[in-house]
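Hey, I'm writing a tutorial for new members on how sequence and structure tokens pair up, and I'd like a real worked example in the thread rather than a made-up one. If someone can provide the structure for the chain below, I'll link this post from the tutorial.
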Amino acid sequence: MDNFIFGRYLPMDSIIHKMNPAAKIFLCFYFVILVFFANGLLSYSAMSLFVIALIFLSKSPIKMFFKGIMPLIWIILFTIAIQILFSSGGETIYKIGIINITTFGIKNAIFLFMRFILIISLSTILTITTDPLEISSGISILLRPLKKLKFPVETFSLMISIALRFVPTLTDETKTIMDAQRSRGVDFGSGGLVKRVKSFIPLLIPLFVSAFKHADNLSIAMESRGYRINNRRTHYNNYNWSNFDTLSIFVAILISMIIFILRK
């Protein structure tokens, strides 16, 4: 649980932190989509260099990004193993039964690993450099045209920001409950799979109680501040579009051109 950092905001004085939240959210989704267009070592290397540059510009500790990867490492390794062991195409290196290791499978596994790392790193940059309230405002700005279709943009953006804000809160609550259970002799790491799953059942009731308590406190706080659904909202902070935001859009276009030029 200590390694789970999704949704955690890290206040720093960096140029990435100062960007317009709408620009950051748009560029994050744009580059995540762009990752899927990379199909060679050169294009993935170009994307990797760009993400590394973003990490340094955000002034965030490198260990934060490793913490973002670790909770998903087993899913990544499992997906890569499936890709290596059961892919067809290319020159066969080893084959026994349904297991077929080929050069094509190994190459795709490497690209798949890089794709995972790039996507996780991009999402981590967004969450640690953008406050949940800024994310709410950014989503509201990006979805503003949908208001003409009577889509509840403000409510939707608030739901997203609250969900992101409660992810680290509930993660910390889970860790606290697990520590309390361990002090009473519960062992979450021993036994078979069924026993391990059963050992997590005592966590559910106190976790749900804590979640409902947080939700109730939040609703009371929102009502006391005059929040009403579908009413026009005002914002404490106004996010202006800066020259660096414009430059970021041009850089995104340039990176796109490089990726498509390097595609094979």
